[in-house]
Specification:
2 domains, 371 residues, Rossmann fold, 8 strands, alpha/beta, two-stranded antiparallel ribbon
């Protein structure tokens, strides 16, 4: 298959994160970490954005992975509604395991609500205090608050919004606000939230989020590689760990071709293992476990009944297979990117474009480039 080395010329909307308190990396030094948390209104009126985010979260992650020098990237999620709904907040702690983030996002359903305001303040406060941000100023920490309704200002048993935003500034967390829809009360408060630290940005997108997956001629090739990769999965450990890998396999089997392509593009660009935690080979390569430490019950089914040498041989065979898949994926990424450059979607604002635009501005401000 012919590939191209053309650099991406993606068209991104204006925006940025401003003067984050992180120095630009010097030549030859590791890039700083980037931690991103999406704080999403998950009431019924947000169904379009929530469903769109499920399809585009891999694309957003893949674009961040194109930064050069390549940063260590982690994500978290906070879904929120209001008191009296099924839940007020649901949090996923900060993690570099994108398959886990996608699983938790897929579990979100936009339901409830029907009135305004919403529990924005509680969602922000818990996100700032409970999800495991890295300490210090050597990590870029960013929140994307996204919703269509203003916060409750009448709840007296929680910190005031001004106190919450001050806490974010104190901890070096930039709060960006992306409004869905055109509600004027939301716009005023969202703009004030974004301005609170002089570093956040406000953006408005259509109520639906306006996201779509662009299909390319090589998406089927990604799907074929994903099917081969699925046959090399090695679930191990306890029931929950095994279920994580099986869940990833099932989600990808049911996903649209473009989502599969975005996912494998992320793993190819980030240098991460082609599957997340819970797969034996991925965890061996990441140093999360050792083959010699596993008892028979914890081993993948394919390794039970084998001698230690035979187990190692099977692992090495799978390692070589995946190395070949990664080589193929690298070529597909370049070919797919060229197609996307030549078939850019319209210029209407969308949630994913706003996020990527701000990441691009962050890169420029800190001396990064897109590969």
């Amino acid at each position: 298959m012919k590939t191209t080395g053309l650099r991406c010329l993606m068209v991104l909307l204006a925006g940025g994160l401003g003067g984050l308190p992180v120095a630009a990396p010097a030549a030859g030094t590791p890039a700083p970490g980037i931690e991103v948390c999406f704080v999403l209104d998950t009431t019924g009126s947000m169904s379009g954005l929530v469903e769109g985010a499920k399809a585009r979260i891999w694309s957003i992650a893949s674009e961040i992975a194109r930064l050069s020098p390549r940063p260590d990237v982690s994500f978290c999620l906070t879904g929120f509604r209001d008191r009296g709904d099924e839940y007020v907040t649901r949090l996923t702690a900060m993690t570099a395991d994108m398959d886990r983030i996608h699983a938790d996002l897929t579990a979100f359903r936009a339901e409830g609500g029907g009135d305004t305001p919403e529990a924005v303040n509680q969602a922000l406060y818990e996100t700032i205090t409970n999800i495991g941000w890295s300490p210090g100023d050597d990590v870029i920490k960013v929140i994307y608050l996204t919703g269509d309704a203003p916060p409750h200002m009448d709840y007296t048993d929680e910190p005031a919004l001004e106190e919450i935003l001050a806490l974010a500034r104190q901890r070096g967390i930039v709060v960006n606000a992306i409004q869905c829809g055109v509600d004027s009360a939301t716009r005023r408060i969202w703009q004030a939230i974004a301005r609170s630290g002089d570093e956040g940005r406000y953006a408005a997108v259509p109520q639906s989020g306006n996201m779509r997956v662009v299909e390319t001629p090589v998406d089927q090739d990604f799907v074929a590689i994903q099917a081969k990769l699925a046959r090399t999965l090695m679930p191990y450990g306890d029931t929950s760990l095994r279920a994580r890998v099986v869940g990833t396999r099932e989600r990808m089997a049911a996903a649209a071709d473009g989502v599969v392509a975005d996912r494998l593009s992320y793993f190819g660009r980030s240098g991460a293992a082609l599957v997340g935690e819970g797969d034996l080979l991925a965890d061996l390569e990441a140093g999360r476990t050792r083959l010699s430490d596993l008892d028979t019950e914890s081993l993948p089914d394919a390794l039970r009944g084998l001698s230690p040498d035979e187990r190692q041989q099977v692992v090495e065979t799978v390692r070589r297979e995946r190395a070949e898949y990664r080589r193929i994926i690298d070529g597909l990424i370049e070919e797919r990117q060229l197609y996307l450059e030549m078939h850019r979607p319209d210029e209407n604002r969308s949630f994913d474009r706003e996020v990527i635009a701000q990441i691009k501005a962050l890169a420029a401000a800190r001396g990064f480039e897109f590969e």
